[in-house]
């Protein structure tokens, strides 16, 4: 979308819809402060709300319908004109946006990697046989089962504070969380080690924020356009195209991670079975403008290597 600055009227009021978890609010406040700086004179406020995804905490995400559950209420607020935009952890945004909504800006990425958090151990390699590791991400579960079969993986849900509390209560020997969330909440000192992409390939969009507006709100899209970071956007477009081509709005154990190297996008990806027994991985290089095609190409490459069989065995695969 191109909008010349002259056509952008300075808004007098901008309302941001956000979930109410501490992390979501931090992210909304970050965007609020940046918008207030860019649009001097505008009153920028946050409308906090609880989503179904926040309420259903006793079941794994994979059984309650997946990512859309965390953004639906925010979209209703935009639909009804109570909010102009929504700020999301891009990782939680479905690959296919609901009709009538669009992601119009991707802000610069925080550390995209997974973090190892423990009160007893320094890293994955230190964990003894039978150690209990908490995660509710199918991606992290598959990676751990494939690479560290001696560990016991247990479900871990709830917001960041809840997850850390469960670790501190001794329910787990270690937990794996996104580094970005811990860093944003000032909890970097809880990170015992940051996992390399070789140890744990991040999820598509991890560490990036996505700003969503109603597709007919060209005005709101223009207000947030300065927040877009071209490098992050190219990387996450590749990651999300990869995930989309494999049906990634569903709960699939897959990782997709792109970095910019010498002006080229370097995308790595894998698909695995939840038990970690099967894993297909690959990589692709291309220019930033080819980012989406790169993602689709890597997905085709993995299918040619047998990813289709892994996907077919998963309940909601679209094959
Ligand atoms: N699925 C929950 C979620 N969504 C975004 C983040 C962290 C922040 C980010 O990736 O931007 C987290 C927590 C986690 O995975 O530990």
UniProtKB/TrEMBL annotation:
It catalyses: 4 porphobilinogen + H2O = hydroxymethylbilane + 4 NH4(+). PROSITE patterns: PORPHOBILINOGEN_DEAM. Keywords: Porphyrin biosynthesis, Transferase. Its EC number is 2.5.1.61. Belongs to the HMBS family. The porphobilinogen subunits are added to the dipyrromethane group. This is Porphobilinogen deaminase.
């Amino acid at each position: 979308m191109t909008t010349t600055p002259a056509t952008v009227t300075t808004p007098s009021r901008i309302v941001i819809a956000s979930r109410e978890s501490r992390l979501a609010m931090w992210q909304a406040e970050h965007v609020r402060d940046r918008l207030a700086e860019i649009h001097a004179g505008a009153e920028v406020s946050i409308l906090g709300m609880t989503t179904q995804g926040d309420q259903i905490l006793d079941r794994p995400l994979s059984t309650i319908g997946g990512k859309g559950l965390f953004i639906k209420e925010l979209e209703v607020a935009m639909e009804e004109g109570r909010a102009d935009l929504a700020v999301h952890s891009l990782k939680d945004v479905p690959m296919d946006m609901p009709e009538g909504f669009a992601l119009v800006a991707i802000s610069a990425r925080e550390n995209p990697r997974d973090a190892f958090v423990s009160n007893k151990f320094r890293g994955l390699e230190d964990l003894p046989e039978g150690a209990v590791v908490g995660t509710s991400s199918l991606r992290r579960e598959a990676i751990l089962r494939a690479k560290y079969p001696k560990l016991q993986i247990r479900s871990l849900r709830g917001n960041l504070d809840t997850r850390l509390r469960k670790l501190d209560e001794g329910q787990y020997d270690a937990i794996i969380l996104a580094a970005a969330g811990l860093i944003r909440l000032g909890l970097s000192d809880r990170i015992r080690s940051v996992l390399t992409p070789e140890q744990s390939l991040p999820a598509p969009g991890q560490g990036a924020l996505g700003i969503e507006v109603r597709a007919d709100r060209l005005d709101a899209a223009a207000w947030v356009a300065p927040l877009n970071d071209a490098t992050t956007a190219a990387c996450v477009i590749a990651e999300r195209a990869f995930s989309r081509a494999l049906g990634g709005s569903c709960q699939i154990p897959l990782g997709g991670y792109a970095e910019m190297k010498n002006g080229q996008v370097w995308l790595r990806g894998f698909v695995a079975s939840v038990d970690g027994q099967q894993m297909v991985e690959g990589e692709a290089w291309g220019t930033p403008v080819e980012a989406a095609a790169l993602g689709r190409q890597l997905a085709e490459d993995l299918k040619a290597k047998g990813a289709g069989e892994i996907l077919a065995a998963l309940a909601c695969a679209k094959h």
